[in-house]
Amino acid sequence: MLGFNVTLVFKQKVATLNTSTAIAIRFSLMGNGFHQSVLLALVPIIQSSFDLPVSYVGFIVSLGLLASAVTIPVWGMIVSRYGFKIVFHIVILGGLLGSLGIGILILLSQNGYGVGGGAFGILILCRLIYGSTATAMLPIAQAYTSIHSIPSLTLKSLGQLSGTLSIGRIAGSGLVWPLLLIGNSIPLLATAPIYIVAWVLLRKEVDTYCVPPISAPLKSTLRHDVSAIIVVFILQLSIGLLYVALGPLIMERTAMLQEQVAGFIGFCIMAGGMGGIAAQFLIVPRLNGKEVTGRILGVGAVLVGFLFIIYQPKITILLLSCALIAGGTATVLSTNLSIHLRGKDSRQKAQLTSILASIQLIGLAIGTLVSGVLSDIAADLPFWFANLFMAVLMCVLSVARLFNIIIIPAFARKADTTLPK
Predict the structure, then answer these.
(1) Taking the model in full, what pTM does it have?
(2) pLDDT-based confidence at residue 313 (cuts at 50, 70, 90)
(3) Thinking of the domain 17-209+217-415, which architecture would CATH place it in?
């Protein structure tokens, strides 16, 4: 299902993908998706529990994203030197500890303990632990997959990894409402069993295949890589504007209570997860060899989704908008990553995927931070800015495609006729 090659001969050594390792990766990604969806849904509850304005919540979320942006390239270098095994263990353990820490802190605050500056500091610490470790799983797993996969199946395999993350998001968003009936901290505490299963499977059997340090220069593809980085930065900047602004927007447009808003955000995330899965499993596999065109279509879907949020405030339209935004984002990220990795030596993939993921998270963190500030001014202001950014990106990509510049350099097209169309 993953499209992995069974063996890979590298430096006279055979790297074998273990089934247990692949399943552990899947469980860890599902745990990450579960955590992300419930954390987004719990924004109103975190506000009330710690008596925080939206801008403070945006600061906490963006701080974790910035920690991810800084540490992911470091994990890529560790993989290059010591192999995947140690990194897989650390990122799973970090996800477990970060989720448990935030969940326990919410539990204590709801019972009258720990509310104050100390609790706020611990909340930031837990967020930093999670952001510094767990979010590295996807780029490292993508590098692991691209090294083992058959070239013609790389795009499909990468899409399925992101699809697994979306499955976790759907599970989290679908369960957040019933779990909230038990307790406000239960949705985050429920991620613990998922990470524990991943940890047990990883300890049972793991591939110790090590990627040697990068030595080849990247100058020949620098222009191509920069275009890919710009695309994901602008995309994630726009998505970051949505992160903490959705809850306040829904509260302004409806008469829902905070707990009801948290539950509805869960449904929005579920709709987004379904849109992402549909894109990853039904659309992305059909874009092999047409990644650039697919990337433009994905940006267009995100743009339409943001327009719907502004001009059609109905609840059903919000669900459709989330599906369009998530599906378009999934399409853009998968096709963009495939373009980014094309033609790279296997030794380079761990660091290249981590660098690209780091740039994405920087954009997401900046968008999240700005979103909190803009939401305090007007609930729909972040979405106007997101529309502006996506419209500009759509125009640039369309012009670049028409004139065959920037995205596919002329010298690369002459050198490689298999470049995406």
Answers:
(1) 0.68
(2) low
(3) Up-down Bundle (1.20)
